[in-house]
Amino acid sequence: MSVGPLPTDVDHLVFKALQTYADGQVVRWIDEPVTGSAAEPDHPAPVVTLSAEGTTEPATSATAAKTTGTSDSSTKTLAIVGIVLGALALAVALASIGRGRRPSR
User: Fold this and answer.
1) Do residues 15 and 47 touch, judged by C-beta distance below 8 A?
2) What are phi and psi of 28, to 5 degrees?
3) What DSSP string describes 40-86?
4) One domain, residues 70 and 52
5) How many domains does the chain have?
6) Hey, how many other C-beta atoms are within 10 angstroms of the C-beta on 44?
7) Is 3 found in the same domain as 51?
8) Is the pTM of this model over 0.70?
9) Domain containing 93: what range?
10) Per-residue model confidence (pLDDT) at position 18
11) Measured between alpha carbons, how far is 33 from 29 in angstroms, rounded to an integer?
12) Which residue in 9, 79, 81, 82 has the fewest CB atoms around it within 10 Å?
């Protein structure tokens, strides 16, 4: 998202959105969150919290995993395992094809 100067008189921005599906159904993501309410609206609008320049907001659980580095190393490990398993599957497939083309005696 690219934006110009942000407003200084608010602490958050609400982006109301309409989502249209292929069958024509429209879902209105326009419900603003209610401060102090434990119940979340059925179709909450996306909200961006603004902070003063040079300050940071506390990380939420979703962003905390990104900043700790553990998610990054786990992703790399899973990627390597996936590549190795893919290479093994390719070797087995090529061996099976090679056996199938030999003339029977």
Assistant:
1) yes
2) -100, 105
3) PPSSBPPEEE---TT--PPPPHHHHHHHHSHHHHHHHHHHHHHHHHH
4) no
5) 2
6) 14
7) yes
8) no
9) 59-105
10) 94
11) 11
12) 9
